[in-house]
Write a structure and sequence with these properties.
This protein is mainly alpha-helical and 432 residues long. The chain has 18 helices and no strands. It has three domains: 62 residues; 184 residues, no CATH class; 163 residues, no CATH class.
């Protein structure tokens, strides 16, 4: 009888984990959709409570390592930064949501079995975003009707303006850059699947995602995706001969060239104007200068986390009231030298851990494992490149996706056995 109840208990916990996972993804994407915005903050708190409860239930098996502690130190830095902030409420809100992201990181790094489900859900969402990016070219009336269901009238007008005036396609959202980020994740999953499983359908996915990214007009997503793809192929394609790696690299370059050529042939030439537009770059330099000025005023401790946006409203010469579009400069202005070093260190150490992990997979035959860790590195490369031109740690949906997928870079497994034996030392497949 006890055994029966125990099996029932395990099934209930498993169901709760999967339902929580689905709700988590919905909440993450609700940050950018007006009609679902009520789910964003409240939903994040509810999920955090559920995850904390699940961790407590399994506390004897939860592993907290040095990288987890480094992320916790980052949160402590943000709490201290909030205490000196001129806009304490906004600083504390950001710190709370960042803490929730760290909790996701700890939870998923201790629940490897959820990985395949996460990647599948993310791939489906990326496909949906690609469909809605291409939909205006096929049936613009239908696209507008769907937008009116998801967004308020002001947001719909902004989306139409972006598409008609600037030729930027935002898919399901108000920001072309965020659309490009989501599409880039789908592109990364398709690439990692192609490298491992070598199916034609993955090449089709890559072409669709690449063209969709091009339509967003996001220079970051376009260039960062290419660079991240090249890094994954060139540095982490483990074969015995360099010729095989070079062949894959050349084929990838050819595939990228084909995607660009298809975009040039079938889409309006005005879409290319975005990539040559220097006005937006000029406005970014104004933001950079303001961030540097704020940093020089308080170089040690900064002005408080998540405060840069509010300082732009005090400057008449600032045409854009927005974030710095450079994470390094914004953190320097908000948390000073000390805070910036500690926060950035968490991202760098997590990336290095992923690089070490995938090198230990050299003799693994588990295709799911290889896909997973390659995508983890693809995501981290892309996310860190975005530090130079965007605000990924201030866009909560992007930040949470980073925490979820990068957590697998530090999943515990038997590295020694992986190096010495040609075995599947970590199997993500569900048991029948």
């Amino acid at each position: 009888m006890n055994c029966k109840y125990r099996l029932c208990y395990i099934d209930v916990i498993g169901t709760l984990k999967n339902l929580n996972l689905l709700f988590l993804v919905v909440v993450i994407y609700s940050f950018k959709i007006d009609r679902l915005a009520f789910l964003s903050t409240r939903g994040s708190i509810i999920i955090a409570c559920i995850i904390f409860y699940l961790l407590l239930l399994n506390k004897n098996n939860v592993v907290i390592n040095k990288i987890h502690l480094l992320w916790i130190v980052s949160v402590i830095v943000m709490i201290l930064s909030s205490l000196i902030s001129r806009f304490q409420q906004e600083s504390l809100k950001y710190t709370m949501l960042f803490l929730i992201g760290v909790l996701y990181f700890i939870y998923f790094s201790n629940n490897k079995e959820l990985l395949l489900n996460v990647m599948k859900i993310q791939k489906y969402f990326s496909v949906i975003f690609a469909v809605f990016t291409l939909l205006p070219l096929l049936d613009v009336t239908l696209y507008y009707r769907i937008l009116e269901l998801l967004f308020d009238s002001k947001s719909v007008s902004e989306i139409k303006s972006l598409m008609i005036v600037f030729n930027r396609y935002v898919g399901i959202g108000r920001f072309a850059g965020n659309n490009g980020f989501i599409l880039s994740l789908g592109l990364g999953i398709a690439l990692c699947e192609m490298l491992t499983q070598r199916k034609v359908i993955h090449v089709v996915y890559i072409i669709i995602f690449f063209i969709s990214i091009f339509l967003t007009g996001s220079r970051y997503a376009f260039l960062a995706s290419i660079l991240s793809m090249v890094l994954v192929v060139f540095f982490f394609y483990h074969k015995k001969t360099h010729l095989s790696r070079l062949t894959k690299f050349i084929l990838l370059i050819v595939l990228i060239f084909i995607c660009i050529l298809l975009s040039y042939c079938f889409f309006p030439s005005s879409i290319f104007d975005r990539f040559m537009n220097m006005e937006s770059i000029y406005n970014r330099f104004k933001l950079y200068n303001l961030a540097w000025e704020l940093f020089l005023q308080r170089p040690i401790l900064g002005h408080g986390i998540n405060t840069f946006l509010y300082y732009t409203f005090y400057r008449i010469d600032m045409l854009e009231k927005t974030y710095t579009h450079n994470v390094f400069l914004q953190l320097l202005s908000e948390t000073g030298i000390i805070g910036t070093i500690l926060i950035i260190a968490s991202f760098i150490v997590t990336l290095l851990s992923g690089i070490v992990s995938i090198k230990n997979l050299k003799y693994s035959e588990d295709k799911h494992l290889l896909i997973t860790f390659r995508f983890t590195l693809y995501l981290q490369f892309m996310f860190l490149i975005y530090f130079l031109t965007g605000n990924p740690i201030y866009d909560y949906n992007q930040l949470y996706l980073y925490f979820i997928f990068s957590s697998y870079a530090i999943c515990s497994f038997d590295r020694k056995q992986a190096r010495l034996k040609n075995v599947k030392y970590l199997n993500f497949k569900q048991k029948n």
